[in-house]
Amino acid sequence: MGEAVTDGQRWLRVPVGPEASQWSTRAGTARVLFVVHNVTSATRLLDVLPLFDADPRVQCLATCTGSSPYLHGVPELLADAGLPVLPWEQAVETPVDLAVSASYGGELHLIRGKLAVLSHGIGYNKRLPTPDTGHRTPDTGHRTLGAGGGAGR
Predict the structure, then answer these.
(1) Which of 62, 110, 120, 153 is the most exposed place for a label (fewest CB within 10 A)?
(2) Minimal CA–CA distance to 35: which of 107, 99, 86?
(3) Which residues are bridge partners to 61 per DSSP?
């Protein structure tokens, strides 16, 4: 894949970039950007990659937010998947039809497109119950003293 150096970063020239259309063999493809935070989130994203990758109308791309201290193995994983990997700075400048992340890490608000965040493991998005302290609260439906009934009736 062609690369250009911009601001010290290697930006992809193909399949995205200002000159990409002259090299493209497919026109009108939708861009799906897989936003990787670490190896755990990358493996979850690679689970859903086949949903998009087999469709010739979709151009799959990847980027890494760089916000996790656990980046070991991410470049190798993405290289094995065969995805064009954009530097984060290029990814946030590239309009996409859909960005898919398996983490809330990084500056996701900078992405130029719709964002879907998937869970990447059991309990990741789970709602934790509040501990039972044994005290009654007004939302339990039980009347308490001074709440319009009880003593004095």
Answers:
(1) 153
(2) 99
(3) 33
